[in-house]
Amino acid sequence: MEEKKHKKIKLYSYLKVWHFEHKIYVIGNIVLPVPVNPFEILCFCCAFLLVYLLGRMMPALASIPAILRLGVLPYGITKYMTGVKLDGKNPIKYLIGYLSYVVTIKGKFIEKYRTEPVRSKNIKLNWRCSEGWR
């Protein structure tokens, strides 16, 4: 058998921790066959919960076999959410931004800027600068 060698990374400062891709190799005492990103696990759990709840609400989804409904469908949703980019963003971040735009009041951000009152004093500009002072 071939030994699995993991690339070792030396960190010289704690700031560089955020520049590396995070992977989970072991959960408890169970060694995973493929390293998994923590975001993928979170996305899979949310997709599983969503499909489960929709299956309880809609009787038509209950007719799909359980392995497809609770295994393959959340896996497909996870692969889509982690692979595709909408406006250069992750679809979940795009959805959060869209929902925050819809929920907040449209004029809320415009009200931050106050307008100055119009001054009654008129300012006159003299464009005849080549004639000198008169």
Radius of gyration: 29 Å
Largest sheet geometry: 2 strands, antiparallel
Decide which structural class fits the backbone: mainly alpha
**Physical arrangement of strands within the biggest beta sheet:** 1-2
Give the SSE string.
Answer: EEHHHH
What does this protein structure show overall?
This protein is mostly helical and 134 residues long. The protein has a domain at 14-103. It has 4 helices and 2 strands; from the N terminus they run E-E-H-H-H-H. It has helices at 38-57, 59-62, 66-83, 91-103; strands at residues 24-27, 30-36. Strands 1-2 form a two-stranded antiparallel sheet. Helix 1 crosses helix 3. The chain is flat and about 90 Å long. It starts with 23 loop residues before the first strand and ends in a 31-residue tail after the last helix. 2% of the residues are buried.
Summarize the structure.
The protein is built from 4 helices and 2 strands, in the order ββαααα.
Present the secondary structure layout:
Layout (H helix, E strand, L loop, with lengths): L23 E4 L2 E7 L1 H20 L1 H4 L3 H18 L7 H13 L31
Antiparallel strand pairs: 1-2
What are the main properties of this structure?
134 residues, mainly alpha, two-stranded antiparallel ribbon, 4 helices, 41% helix, flat
